[in-house]
Amino acid sequence: MYTAQMRELIKKVEATRTKRVGIQFPRMNPDERQQVLQEYHPDYRDSGFRCLALGVNKGCKVPIELADLIEAKSRLENIELDLSKIDYDVDVLIIGGGGAGAAAALEAFGQGVKVLIATKLRFGDANTMMAEGGIQAADKPNDSPAQHYLDVMGGGHYTNVPELAAALVKDAPGVIKWLNDLGVLFDKDQDGTMVTTHGGGTSRKRMHAAADYTGAEIMRVLRDEVQNQGIDVVEFSPAVDILLDEDNRAAGAVLCNLETQEYLIARAKTVIIATGGAGRLHYQGFPTSNHYGATADGLVMGYRAGAELAFADTIQYHPTGVAYPPQIFGALVTEKVRSLGATPLNIDGEQFVFHLETRDVEASAIIREIQGRNKGIETPTGVKGVWLDTPLIEIIHGEGTIEKRLPGMLRMYAKFDIDMRKEPILVYPTLHYQNGGLLIDEHGQTKVENLYVAGEAAGGIHGRNRLMGNSLLDILVFGRRAGEHAGAKSKGIKVKKLNLDHVKKYNKYLELSGIITNRVSPMVLPHYTHGRE
Amino acid sequence: MSQDQMVDIYILGKKYSVPESLTIMDSMEYAGYQLVRGCGCRSGFCGACATIYRIKGEKELKVCLACQTKVQDGMYLTQLPFFPGDKRQYDLEELEPNADTMMQLYPEIYSCVGCNSCTKGCPQGLNVMQYIAYAQRGDLEKCAHESFDCVMCGICASRCPANITHYQVGLLARRLTGKYLAPKTEHLQTRVKEINEHKHDLPLQELMQKDIDEIKELYNLRDIEK
Question: How many domains does chain B have?
Fold first, then answer.
């Protein structure tokens, strides 16, 4: 519920609303975009980053919080493990039970090999479940994979690995068909035409959705299918380090049973890291829209095993996280809210940025409005935000649109007594996505033999900025590609003796690099106290 | 936040004093828990944090998602981090979208006694008993849409005297609807066929070979659908 003071300010929004309907705020030109990024995007703030002291990317800058985990000791440092006692013996080990992991599992299993998904929390507990807005695919007559490619490259500031961007757009329609055939309930017109909208930075309306439960709908269907196929899943058992064999090929992982704290050995012929993102590291103190388990575990394990990071210094701050109420601070307000016409407004009820710039530009413009121009709206906790004028959606598309197309958002706000159909909502950028990750090729392979990465943990596809709807797409495109390749490849592999020598070496390099620390990683679970001392 | 009014809550019967502005989930962390089970997306989409509570002095048991509900003074609470509901295995390719399929896979839905405990327990506010009724009569599309916002937290099943796992029934109905009953998408079939016939390979390869300045120009001049 809004305070009396906030209600007063809402009157200014209402006063300008009719004048704003149908008026398009101008888009920024390339120079204006560059300027706002440089001045206000957190990626350009040097104090948030540090250069790595060791490993493949020695000298490259990454967020400080990530550097702290990379420059930390293995959890297994002082633990004697018998690596000949195998607890799980499989062909393909998939670490992570989100969308990428599930897609990889289905494809690998389809190759007729033995697959295990080991996941930190429950199967399906992942950012996939929380992806609300949609999934891009160029499947309409006025669109093409080439057009999609152009949007992807421009959105990524032309830094994307071209082969990965091409794979992404080319597989996209096939992914939608695959999901449709698995029974995902996409929004369609009576004649079967997909209901599609724009996202920030798209040149065609190619955002497919299942209301604002798109990721949840995809995740629960994939999970159900994995269960139907009888693929093995072990929950609450995160990997804490990758195992290599005598030829330095990835050959499994050490898992930790979170309930018994017992370490278990999973041996595999190929390994796919699908552990997702890093929002729970709260870079630069930002709130996050991410899942509880998003602690960059895969980046840390993969890096220790010798895989290379790419674009690890580029983070996506979603322009619209919840600024108020405080109970859901940082939770995602899907971009679809803007796709449907809601626009950001300052304290005077004036629009200050086109509502569908790419996410990095939109977020920077919001930060500029609050910090640079002091036109934000203050909440009782001191956090400032800008309005997102959601009642516009009902004016533009008709009454009932929000209930039909944004039921999740409507419910979330209603639980805290805010009716977004009638009142605008308050937003502030939230840490949403790691644009980079472990570098892969178009089959999902890293440079460590038999080690694959898929999903948010992978890097290169989106370059320095990802567009809305290309993450649900990427986890499925590269999850499937990695699963298929890793499944096929596993058939010709004979695993040699397992070892953790690379972990021991890594710990030694830490000392040689002058890093004396008690930090251990991966983090596995965040630790919150909510102000209690 | 430190100026906050404090309230007393009882986590698994043990008393803690926590700020009243916190959600149940945050209050558990404030109390000193590091959550392993019973915590997922923290945004109301995953169903990991189903919670049962009662307010001191009242009789009624209430249910909610811990991440979406503020604490109240005198709240006795426990989480339901896992529910051993049954999911039937099936091959979607071999099923038909009708009541017989429901009858074969989830016959217990016909034992519904109409107590409405499922609906009363749903933290998403869904009309659960109604979607089970749709499933009983094979009206799968209605079941699919009525159950669409389900987060599969399991509370409905935990309260059902007929041992129905409602959330699995809803999921089956949605998958059958998505695959068989929803209208076919012609433009999707066409595009996938074109891609399989390599009709889009050349335009993509041409773009991939362009240098950055050419791509930049194409990007900045591209027409944008209204």
Answer: 3
Q: Which CATH number do you get for residue B137?
A: 1.10.1060.10
Pair B109, B147 in one domain = yes
CB contacts under 8 A, A 451-510 vs B, are none
pLDDT per residue, tens digit, chain B (226 aa), is: 445 799 999 999 999 999 999 999 999 999 999 999 999 999 999 999 999 999 999 999 999 999 999 999 999 999 999 999 999 999 999 999 999 999 999 999 999 999 999 999 999 999 999 999 999 999 999 999 999 999 999 999 999 999 999 999 999 999 999 999 999 999 999 999 999 999 999 999 999 999 999 999 999 999 999 8
Q: Does A20 participate in catalysis according to the annotation?
A: no
Residues 147-176 on A with a CB inside 8 Å of B are 147, 149-151, 153-154, 158, 162-163, 166, 169-170, 173-174, 176
* Phi/psi of residue A203, nearest 5 degrees: -100, -10
The answer to whether the CB atoms of A183 and B191 lie below 8 A apart is no
Taking contacts as CB-CB distances below 8 angstroms, the residues of chain A near B198 are none
- Across the interface, whether the CB atoms of B178 and A30 are under 8 A apart is answered no
Q: Which residues pair with A430 in a beta bridge?
A: A318
- The residue segments making up the domain with residue B209 are 193-220
User: Which tokens go with A421?
Assistant: 């159909």
- Name the one residue in this structure whose structure tokens are 């327990």: B121
The whole-model pTM stands at 0.97
How distant is the Cα of A458 from the closest Cα of chain B, in angstroms? 21
ipTM above 0.90, yes or no: yes
Domain boundary among B58, B79, B100: B79
Phi/psi for A375 (5° steps) reads -115, 25
Cα–Cα distances (Å) from A331 to A97, A123, A151, A272, A319, in that order, read 21, 21, 27, 29, 11
DSSP helix/strand/coil, A303: helix
Whether B68 and B106 map to the same domain: the answer is: no
